[in-house]
Amino acid sequence: MRYKQLSLVVLVGLVMAGCVTVPEVAYDREASSVQTIALLQPGFPDKPTAFDGAGTQDAMGAAGGLIGSLIGAAIDASTLARREGKLDTALEGTEFNARNQFVDSLVVKLEEQGYSVQILSAGDAARTEHESEPPAAIGVADAVFDVVTTSYGFASTGGQWRPHMYTKVILKSSKDQTVLMQNLVNYNPFYMASQDANVSIPPDPQYSWPKFDDVVAQPDVAIAAMEEAVSKSVDAIVTLLK
After folding, report:
1. 4-41 tens-digit pLDDT
2. Which residues contact 148 (CB under 8 A, 6 or more apart)?
3. Is residue 57 over pLDDT 80?
4. Whether the Cβ atoms of residue 62 and residue 219 lie closer than 8 Å to each other
5. Is 1 a domain residue?
6. Is 9 within the bounds of a domain?
7. Does any domain span residue 177?
8. CATH of the domain at 33
């Protein structure tokens, strides 16, 4: 029962996330003079999801509006829980850790761009929104970087299952909390309004399956697909700070 409840929460979050966009604040590296970055512990899901965008949108369309969104999410919650259970089983015994790959890659690529990066222990790892009051980092770094991935895993649209990742980023001055950069990076934007994400990354065509059971039948390939989504998302995030 708890698995289904959590899946419903995730599903509603995914649906509602697709209905909003993040105000874009373009980064001016020369004007900001940022050399050191304090990276908050990124918000990142514990497990990958497996969201059938087309099925939920059909249910939403039948009811319409916000109520339709919630009804569609409720209808698909049990099915989502079963798919996520299958995915968890397929990944058991593997060394795949999307969060670690994401954080390690982000730090390395920021440093390659000339930034000095310090990871702070502050930050709720399970959060789906930016910290409302990020810790002061004066004397530690020039800016605080708050990165939140609200979902990753697989999504189905157009009859095909593909990897997906949805990440919000904001960089604030340590001195006065001025927003220096803000954006949204969406790998495989599968849900209506999410296709208008600030940074939209098309999925790699080699990772595509007609049925979800085909995804979990090839765990090594599924892992490679998620690793690709993480890698491309990190590249896009770092590009925002060039």
Report:
1. 444 444 444 554 444 456 789 999 999 999 999 999 99
2. 42, 43, 44, 127, 128, 129, 130, 167, 168, 169
3. no
4. no
5. no
6. no
7. yes
8. 3.40.50.10610
